[in-house]
Every structure is written in structure tokens, then in C-alpha cells.
Design brief:
The protein has 14 helices and no strands. It has about 280 residues and is mainly α.
Length: about 280
């Protein structure tokens, strides 16, 4: 399946069992299309929220056992019924996408974590549900991995998010390290002159602390890769290693994601595969 964005969704790659590729593709299209309503194009905020309310109404129809009104939700309804999937994760995703329309700043890790709980963690929970896993330990590991991946994506896209009017760095963390938004503006804005020299040390320390926080979550969830069988276990191993590799690349440029946004190349995938094989 073609996958170009919606960074929180695990790609339905060849590593996944064949039986799971179709349901994951359908769930992905639900998430991708809803995220696009909230985030793409030039629509006004109320128009975006109206589009998302249409998705909520379709989920409500599924929850009442009524026929969906759109092709996407007809397909989703079949997947939900066939695999006995809970609807709560779908509602949570829509709640997070709606929040993106109006919320542009996050005070602290608690408020950012609540957003991740709804924007990222539902994806992992749906993948577990497709595999018949609902035990507390698996859900906890999955939540940690998904939140970590969401945060890592935020840290690599600080400049991109700034241009969209968003700052996902916790305001409390920026204050702790003495970094104001004018520093981001100087580094990320049009014809940006760059981070003020007097702030470079603080910026490096700020980003290092955020990477430490995300990495701790990633490692907390890593045991899930060893517990899941077969191809899915390998998919999770590579997902964890991918997050770890992005962290390393951000560290290597001292947090300058404005000019050196990290991407994974062929050599990185080889390294990730080797590390995945060594995970115990």
C-alpha cells in the first residue's frame, strides 16, 4: 500500500502477516484521511471540525449497528466486525485530530502526553487487537512505544511544525532551559538567520533532554518486540530501532533539525536490521 505520511501508523510492510495487511490498510486510510481533514489544505477551522464530526457520526452509526454511509466506513465496518475491534481507539484518534485544529501549544509533559495518548497510542492498541492481544502488559508496552515515536517525530519536525503555527516542545521545558519561541522563529522562519549564538548551548541541552525522555519511553516499551511472535515481532523490533536511529541522528547534529532533518537511508536500515536481530 502507498504510505507517504501519517507518521504514527506502522506501515503494512512485507514483515506483517499477510492476513493483517488488508485491515491495517483500511485503518490507515481512516487515520490518514481524518488527519488530512485536520491538517492539510487551506480550510477554516470550523470547516475542518465539521469534516471530523462527519467521521464521528459514521463511527456512531457503526456503534449502533447501522450501515455506514461512505465507502471508507463501509470497509472499516467490515474490518471492525470481522476482527472484533474496539471503537474507542478510533474515537480517540478523531479527538486528537480535532485538538490539532485549535491547540497550538502544550504546557508540559502531562498535557502533551494526553495528546499522544489519543493521537498515537490508539494505533498500537488496534494492532494488538488485530493480534488478539489485550493484556495490560502488552498495552502498556505498546503505549510507551507509540508515545515515544510521536515525540521523536515532534523533535525532528520542530521547524516544520513551527511553519504550521505549532510548537510541541513543552512550554515548561523551554522555560527550564531558557529558550523562547523567538529562538525557534529565528532558526525556522523564512530567511531565518539561525539560532542566536547565545542560545545554542541551551538549545542543545533542551533537545538532548527531550530525546532522553523519548528514548526512556522507547526502551520501556521495547520488551513488546520480544513478546510478539513471528513477523509482527520483527516489525516492532524495526520500529523501535527506527525510533532509536532517529534519536541518534538528531543527537549527531546537536539538535539542529532546522537544517539537518534526520531521514533513514539504506545504511540505516541495514544497521537497524542488525540491531533488531540482536534484541533480547
Amino acid at each position: 500500500m502507498p504510505v507517504d505520511h501519517y507518521e504514527n501508523f506502522p506501515v503494512a510492510s512485507l514483515l506483517l502477516p499477510r492476513r493483517l495487511r488488508r485491515p491495517i490498510e483500511v485503518i490507515y486510510r481512516f487515520a490518514r484521511s481524518a488527519d488530512d481533514i485536520a491538517d492539510e489544505g487551506d480550510a477554516a477551522g470550523e470547516e475542518r471540525l465539521r469534516g471530523l464530526r462527519g467521521y464521528v457520526e459514521e463511527l456512531d452509526r457503526l456503534s449502533r449497528g447501522l450501515a455506514a454511509q461512505t465507502p471508507l466506513f463501509r470497509e472499516l465496518g467490515v474490518v471492525v466486525q470481522t476482527w472484533a475491534l474496539p471503537l474507542e481507539p478510533f474515537y480517540d484518534l478523531l479527538s486528537a485530530f480535532a485538538q490539532d485544529v485549535s491547540v497550538r501549544r502544550y504546557a508540559d509533559y502531562e498535557t502533551l502526553g494526553d495528546y499522544c495518548r489519543r493521537s498515537a497510542n490508539p494505533v498500537g492498541r488496534l494492532v494488538l487487537a488485530l493480534n488478539g492481544r489485550s493484556d495490560a502488559a502488552s498495552l502498556e508496552y505498546s503505549d510507551a512505544i507509540c508515545t515515544a515515536l510521536q515525540l521523536i517525530n515532534f523533535w525532528q519536525d520542530i521547524g516544520i511544525d513551527w511553519k504550521k503555527g505549532r510548537v510541541y516542545l513543552p512550554q515548561s521545558e523551554m522555560a527550564r532551559f531558557g529558550i523562547g519561541e523567538e529562538g525557534i522563529a529565528r532558526a525556522a522562519g523564512p530567511d531565518a538567520p539561525g539560532m542566536p549564538p547565545e542560545w545554542e548551548a541551551q538549545w542543545k541541552a533542551l533537545i538532548a533532554a527531550q530525546l532522553d525522555y523519548a528514548q526512556a519511553l522507547l526502551l520501556r516499551g521495547a520488551p513488546l518486540a520480544r513478546q510478539l511472535p513471528g513477523r509482527l515481532g520483527w516489525e516492532i523490533r524495526l520500529t523501535v530501532q527506527g525510533g532509536q536511529r532517529i534519536i541518534e541522528k538528531i543527537r549527531a547534529v546537536s539538535g539542529d533539525v532546522f537544517h539537518h532533518r534526520p531521514v533513514l537511508g539504506a545504511r540505516d536500515w541495514i544497521l537497524m536490521a542488525l540491531r533488531a536481530a540482536r534484541m533480547r
